[in-house]
């Protein structure tokens, strides 16, 4: 097989595939190299197998990065509308589930098939090399040489699309960071994001028996807040609102939970003291909370006989806790459970137009390897498409 190409792309995930098809449609001959035995493995498992492939409400404010302007260019050059148009061209049925999140009606396999079909659309070519273990990357005389356990390839351009270390059992690695450092780029400390939070032992005593209970709540950290479901787990808290806020939480910090969004819990409890004086706390809380949670609160932090016997001060304290429960997580469930990795290749070393490194012409970083992380809900795939397309235009 010919080992000389116009570009080598490392990583055949969402960003790598998008970059490859874009370059091939501009007439380039690219090699797409991955150590996995199949392309797009995270696409296949995403969205419960239906791939939440983009979000109608994609705006730059819904991404985290040390440079909050960096991702604007790529997101505006290749938009959610552009990706949706491709999905529609391939007649893939989809629907909006909630909050602008677009999912395939049937299977995520349709998205992978679409990307592979686009790779074959020419006039250039995509030479896909799977199950290739990369053993070395060298750069000399304006050429990159990638050595693998199955031979070597060379090209004047190298695109790194190997993602971040989330879900290592799927083959995720920190390869991009090691390579970036070797070429003199800096890394914004990577950390698990969109990840369940774990509880300290005292909170866990309350939470563990509630495992499986979910409710509509607001999770807030600093000025950022998300109203969606939270879910009690045997290790702490999960659910969409918790996954979202986990990306903003820093170790040692606290998050605030409003378990009764839109309801003034103190006013509610004082009202019930007057209107249902003989009722117990559990019975009153069950009116507005899942009954297992009401029971646990009545057995634990909010004990009391009849409402009439509860001093107003105690009801105010309970109401305050329900609307502003301060939760100090012990940590997160780590990369094993993190949907994405926040942090990554420092955007100061990259062109926001093309994703090419400023100091090493021909070297590009795209997708999750870069310090740009989206909210839950299709934003991370949109970043993979937009950054992959931007680099593909420059190859
Ligand atoms: P991605 O991880 O997709 O691809 C990297 C590729 O590089 C892989 O093929 C890997 O095998 C390869 N690779 C890694 N190290 C290598 C090495 N050393 N040598 C060779 N190859 C190497 N997002 C979203 O928007 N909507 C959703 O529904 C979901 N759902 C979801 C579910 C789950 C369970 C997870 C874990 C993640 C999601 N995501 C998501 C996030 C989304 O999957 C993620 O943001 C993108 O896949 C990132 O695309 P990349 O191409 O950058 O990396």
TrEMBL record:
UniProt key word Zinc-finger: no
Keywords tagged on the record: FAD, Flavoprotein
Requisite cofactors: FAD
Transmembrane feature ranges: none
Pfam family, one: HI0933_like
Gene3D superfamilies with a match to the protein in the record: FAD/NAD(P)-binding domain, HI0933 insert domain-like, Translation factors
The RsdA/BaiN/AoA(So)-like Rossmann fold-like domain, residue ranges: 6-393
Domain named RsdA/BaiN/AoA(So)-like insert: residues: 191-340
NCBIfam families per UniProt: aminoacetone oxidase family FAD-binding enzyme (TIGR00275)
PANTHER family named among the record's database cross-references: OS12G0638800 PROTEIN (PTHR42887)
Entry protein name: NAD(FAD)-utilizing dehydrogenase
Source species: Caenispirillum salinarum AK4
């Amino acid at each position: 097989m010919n080992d000389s190409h116009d570009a080598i792309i490392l990583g055949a995930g969402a960003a790598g595939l998008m970059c490859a098809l874009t370059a091939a449609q501009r007439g380039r001959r690219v090699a797409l190299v991955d150590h996995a035995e199949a392309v797009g493995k995270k696409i296949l498992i995403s969205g419960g197998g239906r791939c939440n492939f983009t979000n109608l409400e994609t705006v730059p404010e819904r991404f985290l990065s040390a440079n909050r302007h960096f991702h604007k260019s790529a997101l505006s050059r290749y938009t959610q509308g552009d990706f949706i148009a491709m999905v529609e061209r391939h007649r893939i049925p989809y629907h909006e589930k909630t909050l602008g999140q677009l999912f395939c009606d049937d299977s995520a396999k349709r998205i992978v098939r679409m990307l592979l079909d686009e790779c074959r659309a020419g006039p250039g070519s995509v030479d896909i090399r799977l199950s290739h273990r990369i053993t070395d990357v060298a750069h000399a005389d304006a050429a990159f040489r990638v050595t693998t356990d199955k031979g070597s390839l060379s090209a004047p351009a190298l695109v790194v699309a190997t993602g971040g270390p989330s879900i290592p059992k799927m083959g995720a690695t920190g390869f991009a960071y090691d390579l970036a450092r070797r070429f003199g780029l800096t890394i914004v400390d990577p950390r698990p994001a969109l990840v369940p939070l774990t509880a300290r032992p005292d909170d866990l005593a309350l939470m563990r028996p509630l495992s499986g209970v979910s409710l509509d709540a607001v999770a807030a950290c600093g000025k950022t807040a998300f109203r969606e479901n939270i879910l009690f787990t045997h290790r702490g808290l999960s659910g969409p609102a918790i996954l979202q806020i986990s990306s903003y939480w820093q170790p040692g910090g606290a998050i605030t939970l409003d378990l009764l969004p839109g309801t003034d819990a103190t006013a509610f409890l004082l009202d019930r003291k007057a209107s249902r004086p003989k009722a117990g706390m559990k019975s009153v809380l069950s009116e507005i909370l899942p009954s297992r949670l009401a029971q646990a609160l009545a057995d634990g932090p909010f004990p009391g006989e009849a409402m009439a016997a509860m001093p107003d001060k105690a009801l105010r304290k309970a109401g305050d806790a329900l609307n502003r429960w301060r939760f100090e997580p012990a940590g997160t469930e780590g990369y094993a459970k993190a949907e994405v990795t926040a942090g990554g290749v420092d955007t100061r070393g990259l062109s926001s137009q093309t994703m090419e490194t400023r100091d090493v012409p021909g070297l590009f970083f795209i997708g999750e390897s870069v310090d740009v992380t989206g909210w839950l809900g299709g934003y991370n795939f949109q970043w993979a498409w937009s950054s992959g397309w931007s680099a593909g235009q420059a190859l």
